[in-house]
Amino acid sequence: MAERRPRPVDRARRAALDVLTAVRVDEAYANLVLPQVLRKHGLTGRDAALATELASGAIRMHGLYDPVIDACLTKPRLQPEVRDVLRLGTHQLLSMRVPDHAAISTSVDLVRATVGRGPSGLVNAVLRSISRRSLAEWVDQVSPDATADPHGHLAVARSHPRWVVDLLAEALGNDDELDALLAADNAAPAVTLVARPGLATVEELETAGGVRTARSPYGVVLPGGDPAAVPAVAEGRAGVQDEGSQLVALAMGDAPLEGRDERWLDLCAGPGGKAALVGALAAQRGAVLVAHERQPHRAALVASAVRALPGESVKVVAGDGARPAWTPGTFDRVLLDAPCSGLGALRRRPESRWRRTPEDVDVLVGLQQVLLDTALDSVRPGGIVVYATCSPVVAETTAVVDAVLSRRGDTDEIDRFQLWPHRDGTDAMFAATLTRRA
Predict the structure, then answer these.
(1) How far is Cα 142 from Cα 153, in angstroms, rounded to an integer?
(2) Is the domain 11-136 a CATH 3.30.230.10 member?
(3) Are the folds of 11-136 and 242-436 the same?
(4) Where in the sequence is the active site (predicted)?
(5) Mean of the pLDDT values across residues 318-334?
């Protein structure tokens, strides 16, 4: 009897598995590898959206899905490739409106095509067991008791490392909003565009279906579609940029300043989104922005981001920000978007919550203080420095600013703000505006 021919594998699910493999094996970033994978499989429209949701959701939520999967295993060890398929299937069963039979059968087909026939029975049995309970029922079974260990419960239920939950609670100041913040971290963010002043207008972006943002005068939320298909974005006159990042750039450009206002510095400019907005503001005022970036490949990204700006308005420079090549007091305005843990952008970078460690934060804090000292030394008396992080963690935000202020006798704080995904619909950006005393 002839062997039955295997069913073809769903292309969107195969693409999602390719993303999970690249993230696990090559330590790739999902948001960077995803467009390449979509092109490779020729996916657009609904199929591309499905692949994106599958990959992002499975990566983001595996802190919950793995205990659920393990609860259905008779043997604790799984091939990493098989676990990836099970994560994708679990996401469909517990967090998407995919019929159970479709989630299970496509997962069996996927593991058979990519790993072999051997694990197909196991995948079928595990996913059938998972399908017998709802998401809420599984959360109750695999997470710590919410009363006895509220942070431990939320760490599993909202799929965040426990140490991250603890630091976010500290940053909030209480637990009242903690669940709302963690839930916002797990929600797919809207695509937000920025109209770079002097190059594009908000009205132009609105013709692509965009809706104006609440706080940035240059921001537009795109309801769907490929932002690269918007002509202003394709031409570099506009870009994809979270409203929180726009507000940080505007804090640097709009802070009141007396005297000369001709020389601006973006000390850690890569990959270039803030540099492009700040550079556009500088060009309108006749100022010159030095976009400084330590890593040459990131400096190349900055050059690409500012390509539509007048050549004389932005100078891209590669160098070590801790050992600047310029004379102290050279600049009138300085933006320091400091290297940080990125724990304020977990909704955009699903894998980052699993890659960072508490030790990373300790190392970064030392670097942040050094760079803030450099930024303050680089600005003239009376000039402005904005210190920013894409992190709400106290050690990386207020503690860094307060530590530097306490040991310097020449600096005053003008303003500071903290944005939140669950309150503001932005990444959790922090910014403090400082001035050198004249």
Answers:
(1) 9
(2) no
(3) no
(4) 390 (nucleophile)
(5) 94
| Known binding residues for S-adenosyl-L-methionine | 268-274, 293, 320, 337
Please tell me the pTM assigned to this model: 0.94
Q: Is 390 among the residues known to form the active site?
A: yes
Q: Please classify residue 282 by burial: count the beta carbons closer than 10 Å to its beta carbon, then call 0-12 exposed, 13-18 middle and 19+ buried.
A: buried
Q: Reading across the β-sheet that carries 238-240, which strands appear in turn?
A: 211-212, 219-222, 191-195, 238-240
Tell me the binding residues.
268-274, 293, 320, 337
- Structural domain spans, the chain: 11-136, 150-185, 192-240, 242-436
> What CA–CA distance (Å, rounded) separates 290 from 275?
9
33 CB neighbour count, 10 Å cutoff: 18
Which residues, including other chains, have CB under 8 Å from residue 140's CB and lie 6 or more apart? none
What pLDDT, in 10s, does the model give residues 192-226?
A: 999 999 999 999 999 988 899 999 999 999 988 78
In this predicted structure, the answer to whether residue 300 has a pLDDT above a threshold of 50 is: yes
- Largest pairwise CA distance in the chain: 90
Q: Which of 55, 390, 393, 428 is catalytic?
A: 390
Domain 242-436 sits in CATH at: 3.40.50.150
Provide CB contacts within 8 A for 74, sequence distance 6+.
Answer: none
